[in-house]
Write a structure and sequence with these properties.
Blueprint: H1 2-23, E1 28-29, E2 34-38, H2 45-54, E3 70-73, H3 84-100, E4 104-107, H4 111-118, H5 126-130, H6 137-154, H7 158-162, H8 166-175, H9 180-186, H10 192-198, E5 203-206, E6 209-212, H11 225-237, H12 258-261, H13 264-278, E7 282-285, E8 295-297, E9 302-304, E10 318-323, E11 326-331, E12 334-337, H14 344-356
Parallel strand pairs: 1-5, 2-3, 3-4, 6-7, 7-9
Antiparallel strand pairs: 2-10, 5-6, 8-9, 10-11, 11-12
Length: 358
């Protein structure tokens, strides 16, 4: 009997362990015929939808029509613009719809997703909070203020009590607009968006292309994709790890800008090493806004796709696509070949993109 119970217990542990492994998002994909990569959205639902339609991924009802294609959104759908919640809801729907069609939607974690999870709200607009308001928001906010005031009273020095006047309350209310507390719950560990973000990757490799929000610095060059992704999710689950973790590190994959703005001669060896260690031909990054369209660096080994899609950055409509190994740019719905190196071809490419913007 005891032996049988041990076997049952072992089987339960095995099932739970297998489920835990299955819950880890996949980092590497192969055999994908078409990939569309879109950079930072920053709360501009209208521009994002226009670009998805131009790429043939959604129809006029915003439903997936991309078949077996993979969509990669390289992070920063949040902040600055007013409609981040709508963008996240759309991506959630597309995740389900794409999988049913044999495709996939990858919503990578950018620094702004992480910031909203761990509470750095510098770039959250009042309109973003307003998207979370409901009929109970005023009551909730008043209850939270009363709780705050009571905690201050009980803490309490005479100086703290003097602070509890009308001016102090007005200042507190301005710092906590209606929808603020609903927003914070939604990004918490049990909230709809908090759980969703925590379940994503910071980097994926599809075929031989590496996608990451900011880039991989020399500091993290020896980390595997699984390690980068696992560490980021662990840190967003346990904020005590953030101070020494990669999520808030300026050299971490969410923040690093070296591949976008450092003299190419200084990092050429590093880029070559990344290609070898990750087995990739190109590294696609967002995070750093380009001059107005998709831009190649390091002879096309690095491709920058944060084109300033959001109206907060100029509202430019461009993304990167790969079909059967061939790369091109969709700029305002027009296919442009992606040049690999600086020179006459790059100049002509930039001129063509600029002409489409006028």
């Amino acid at each position: 009997m005891a032996y049988g119970m041990v076997r049952v217990f072992a089987l339960i542990l095995l099932i739970l362990f297998t489920q835990a492994i299955a819950a880890e998002p996949q980092s590497v994909w192969s055999g994908v015929g078409r990939v569309v990569a879109i950079g930072d959205v920053h709360g501009d639902y209208t521009q994002f939808v226009k670009l998805l339609r131009a790429a043939g991924l959604i129809d006029e009802k915003d439903a997936w029509i991309g078949g077996k294609a993979h969509l990669v959104q390289t992070g920063d759908v949040l902040d600055r613009g007013p409609e981040s919640r709508k963008v996240m809801d759309l991506l959630m729907r597309l995740e389900r719809q794409a999988r049913r069609a044999g495709g996939f939607t990858h919503a990578l974690i950018g620094n702004h997703e992480a910031m909203n999870v761990y509470g750095d709200l510098r770039y959250v607009s009042e309109a973003e909070y307003a998207a979370f308001r409901d009929s109970n928001s005023e009551q909730l906010r008043e209850a939270m203020y009363q709780q705050y005031a009571e905690e201050l009273r009980q803490s309490s020095s005479g100086q703290s009590l003097l602070a509890l006047n009308d001016d102090h309350k007005r200042a507190w209310l301005s710092q906590h607009p209606l929808g603020y507390f609903e927003h914070r719950y939604a990004f918490g560990p049990k909230g709809k968006y908090g759980k969703w973000i925590r379940g994503h990757n910071v980097a994926v490799k599809i075929n031989d292309i590496l996608f990451v929000h900011g880039g991989v610095s020399p500091k993290y060059a020896e980390a595997s994709l699984d390690e980068l992704n696992r560490r980021a999710r662990q840190e967003l689950d346990d904020f005590t790890k953030l101070k020494v973790g990669l999520v808030t590190d300026p050299e971490g994959p969410l923040w690093y800008r070296g591949l976008a703005d450092t003299d190419e001669r200084l990092l050429e060896a590093h880029v070559n090493a990344l290609q070898k260690s990750y087995g990739c031909s190109r590294i696609v990054i967002g995070h750093t806004v380009t001059a107005g369209t998709v831009m190649p660096r390091f002879s096309g080994k690095v491709v920058m796709i944060d084109v300033g899609l959001s109206s907060a950055y100029g509202g430019r409509l461009a993304c990167l696509a790969f079909e059967e190994g061939n790369a091109y740019v969709l700029h305002r719905g027009q296919k442009l070949p992606l040049p690999m190196e600086r020179g006459e071809r790059l100049i002509k490419y930039l001129e063509s993109a600029a002409a489409l913007d006028h």
